[in-house]
Fold this sequence. Notes:
Elements: H1 28-64, H2 73-76, H3 78-89, H4 95-117, H5 130-146, H6 153-174, H7 182-196, H8 198-238, H9 240-249, H10 257-269, H11 283-293, E1 297-301, H12 305-308, H13 312-333, E2 337-344, E3 348-354, H14 370-382, E4 386-391, E5 397-404
Parallel strand pairs: 1-2
Antiparallel strand pairs: 2-3, 3-5, 4-5
Helix pairs in contact: 1-3, 1-5, 3-4, 4-5, 4-6, 5-6, 5-7, 6-7, 8-9, 8-13, 11-13, 13-14
Amino acid sequence: MGDQGGTRPSAGTPEGDPGRAAGWIFPMDAAVATTRAGLLAAGVGFGLVTAVLLALLAVLLDLVEPGSVPPWTAAALVPVAAVFVLAWWWDPLSVPNGVALALLTAASLALLTFAVAQSPAAVVGGTSAFPLTMLKAAVILLAAAADRRSGGVLGALAGYLLAEGSVLLTASMTGLPLRLDGPALAIMLGTAFVGGFFPIARSRARRATGSLEDADRRARLGRSREVERRELVAELHDTVLGDLTLLALRRPGPLSEAERGQLTASLASSAILPVLRADEGDLRSRLDAVAGAGGLVLVVDGDLSEVDALPESTRSAMASALEQCVVNVARHARIDAVRLGIRSSPESVEVLVDDEGVGFDPAAVPPDRFGLSESIRGRIEREGGVVELRSAPGEGTRVLIKVPREAAV
């Protein structure tokens, strides 16, 4: 992780968490994601309600005036409702799911257009009949809400072309009169116009909250440096200074292998220290304390007791490396949470530290920055383990730490 680090961001803060000194800042990325989720929910809700109401209307018309609509019209609206359910279920859409959803939308609108062409009550309206207009509007709003690239502008246009194109193509084959659907066109233009203002609003919001975010980062960095300084003093007192005192009191002569190893280990562990650790407790408690000191929420996927069950030297190296990873998240990733994923096998234990923070270029890290080289990689490799790093500016950082279950010989 170099001197970077982190995992996935958290939009909120656990209630009553004393470690969150800057919880009053609502990250801009979280605000965008929350707004988009609300728009998608509104689009899905509008589409489902529209489909249900149109189905009820078709049933009512068939009961009041038999033959005014085909008896299967309500059933034809089932695939329309499925479009909106799948859009919610598959969010965010992958390319294959997006293509499948577009085909289902086109087929659903074609089926409903065929029903309108067979309905004396609706055929007069042609391609701008009320049921078709309502569903076109729902498709336009849904496509705009699902658009992640242009704030809804391209989504609204794509939804309009898909819906209107499906209706017109089916109408040309069934003889349904072609009509300009003014309401659907107006909804598309209005949605695209409003979506075009989202980037402007986001830019203004970023400028307005920039000073708050800078203050938050400075406060976190200050806390991290302070606990790092305190840990350095404590660790030096407990390890290096104690060992040097014992060496000063011993009889003159060459160091034994045991003495040399003890002094080397003490110097290595004190080369750079992450944060003030919890006095006692399992690894989860220690990492929670470290994360809280850095203003982070710790999210764990898997069983951290697998690490606690490792041989003492390996467990200590893994714990120290993970603490350094968490500190790097707090200092550099500019996010609010750190996620650990644990996977074990009979031969090894792996921990993945994954983030979607600012990322960095590992090749550009100065050689005098020990965060990755010594506090993480050095500790793990001395135990026979490996550290794999993947990061790039703007793409987050992933650090995989793998150690054997048996202590290194």
